[in-house]
Amino acid sequence: MIRSLVVLCLVCSALFFMNLQSRDFWAPDEGDFAQITRELDLDFIVPHLNGEPYGEKPPLFYYTIYASQKIFGSVRDEISLRVPSGLFALVGTVLLFGTIVKYVGPMQAFVSAGILATSPLYYWQARYVQVDMVFAVFVAASLLLFFRFYTTRKQPMIYLSFLCLALAFMAKGPLAIALVVPVVLVFLFSEKALGIIKIKDICIGILIFAIVVVPWYLAIYWREGAPYLYENIIRQNLTRFLDAWSHKRPFYYYFTTLPLDFFPWSLFLPLGIGLAFSRTKTDPKIRYFLIWFLWMFLFLSLSSGKISKYMLPALPAAAFITSLAFIEHKSRYNGIMLFILSFVFFALGGFLFIYQPGLYPEFYPARIVIGALSIILATALVFSLRTNKTGWAFPALFCFLVLCYLTGNIDVYGRWNRYKSPRAISEKVASFVGENTPWVYYGSIRGVYVYYVRKQAIHIDDHDTAGLEKIGHKLNKFFILTRKRDVSEVFRTLNNVKPVFEEKVGDTPMIFLRYEK
Hints:
Number of strands: 7
Number of helices: 23
Shape: globular
Order of helices and strands: HHEEHHHHHHHHHHHHHHHHHHEHEHEHEE
Strand order of the largest sheet: 4-3-5-7-6
Strand content: 5-15%
Structural class: alpha/beta
Radius of gyration: 25 Å
């Protein structure tokens, strides 16, 4: 077991931490969180973005990356601010491994943890400055600790579960309660064991929760009043759930995203779910993880606002359920899926070798590496099918994914950065914007531009020409950064506007303008 844990930690460390500085902060969220962290130096209680109170989330994630920045202050922010996501991803993987080792066995523990660590969504979020990984790990920790309480009846476990629930709340708000509490209640009801939690334990747990959560909300109410709390608790949770103003997607959205976010393990998830259902009556462990996954998938599907990363808290349960499929080496379903995968990876390898080598030639060496790995994997899968050794499938897929991700860490993301990073244009803007010359960002605010310009902007929302006109009357001289598609609105609204330069950020043409009365 110790050897497996060491291997798992070493692999996860390489996946989650290697070459974090290879790319700059990317929109939409990384630059926002980096700028919020910078502005914590000015106000540690109320998070601000570009000088305005930012009420979308509670502050735990901002405090976490702020602490990381101070601890690792000698390295670039692109490293120090990403370390917490990787660290929490590592902790989440180890927690799942430790729980499965204790209550199932070491082989299934390694398979479950390996599936989790190498699922594309989990891996990417481990290297990205977003709140979702920290939130997901606290949610998972709360559920895993409660399961330990249920199996051992040790009271400290339920108190720790409440503590993790409170920390999840402080990362992303009431969603933590909506994801955790129904899983616990449905499981206890199915076990006819609602009485195992004593009133005293519930009261102590609520007290722990309140000690963690209430002080910041009281401070915020004192500083910012009810509107901030409405934004943080009601609009960002209840309103987003019932009638989202962005990312509004149909009920079946996660049926289309999870297969890719969990690929290739998603191909084996249906078998795992089938096996889990067949064993729920006799195995409470499997029932617990099945309820966990199904509730989160259903609840998040019911929400009107959906983004694929929201499914992150469900992945530990999905990984365990999928591991059931790999314990069933003789399954005909597995044989079919492995045959499909061998065909897919043979085709992928050939495609990467042959298709337009001159298209983005800087990526061709990585294409050769991943193409060769794809063909080797396909060959290994065919060999395992022909020799009836389908138990080799998991290690083959695991090694393939690890090597592909390491190729991305070492070679791909640094090259991709030139097509995604707004740093170059921001530094160019900074060279024109002096201490006394304001600059306007016209459009939906992107904190990454403010972060790399290193000066707060006057923000005017998309199509708010009245706001733009007001600034024109108020100031004699300023610069404007906007998307080229919106430049006609600027010219119609303001006189004496002259282009300074144009530059693309990825596929988005940006234009920098000078206004002077």
